[in-house]
Amino acid sequence: MIAERVSRLGTETAFLVSAEAAAFAAQGNKVYPFHLGDMNLPTPSNVLEAGIKAMRDGHTNYCPNAGVARLREVLADDISASRKVAYSMENVAIQPGGKPTISKFFLTMMNPGDEVLYPNPGYPIYESQIEFHGGKAVPYGYIESEDNFEIDTDMLAAQITPRTKLLVLNDLQNPTGAECSDQELARIAELVLKHDLYVLCDEAYFDIRYAGKSKSLVALPGMRERCVILHTFSKKFAMTGWRLGATIGPKEIIDVIIKLNVNEESCSNHFVQYAAIEGLTGDQTETLQLLDTLKERRDTTVDLLNSIEGIGCIRPNATFYLWPNVTGAMQKTGLTDYNDFRQTVLKETGVSFCTRLHFGRPLEGEQNYYIRMAYSGIDIPEIKEGLAKFKKFLAG
After folding, report:
1. Cβ pair 377, 40 in contact under 8 A
2. Exposure check for the chain: N or C terminus, fewer CB within 10 A?
């Protein structure tokens, strides 16, 4: 009775780890939740009040399919300034979260049988949506350097065939925190133009940045016409549960995505969009405080992880994820299976995290072992307490 394509639909298995952790906690155990990239930080009060005011002002009905005009205008201005390109409201379609941009991009741009390059390790919904909609998901990987994870651009180039149509680029990446260098972006732009590709630029963490400035592929010559940006309000304004995002790109693509909005959800939540307007245009004090808190958590977590024998952790300048190399730690425990290691650590210490397996099937030739630790949903006292237990366990 179920459609055949459902067999190709994947999931986000980090939620399964969350369920395991919740069951462990329900037995009376303390859990240190490094597993899920949610936030335990409050939405800035001015953003919250703007949403409440919008409800009281009657913005509880349908709104335009493309989103509230004022939000589209101010978001276009914001994206134009930060990416150094020119967008207008016609280039913006508001979405109920970040994920809808992924599926709507593939519905708009991909025909059955088309090949799509996607990052692995990477956000698992890319592969799920490519295959669900009849495409062929083709992975490319990363190389660990001294202070970053770099896209294996040689592998990326080698994976391109005459059937390749699309590329997914998640710069400032989940799960690794990887950030593209100028050289990487230039090489990717070269490949995009050479092979006539279109790109989904997932920039969900563009504004979760602790040092330097984020850059976008769209700023390079010829890329604005070939890139669609995934934007979300969830991270910058701690609005994960508000479910609001946007798709930004060439008008002819955005017009199709707006038509998909009509078919799939009519419109995004009305009053939430007024909260987002306040977030973009209002006082930034509390928004910047969110970054300060996350930076402190990052530094605490990285320092503690690097104090543990058998673990090495890069300190990324963006996102709220860490991708520590735990090869030595796993070898020391004699646990060579990811799930055995993860579940044993949870049972013995209460520390809960995801592993490489939750972000795609390991690529041929992978030799090192990695876990993902998110610090967006755990306070510093618990970070210290949990990682002290983790260290003690690994010390034997």
Report:
1. yes
2. N
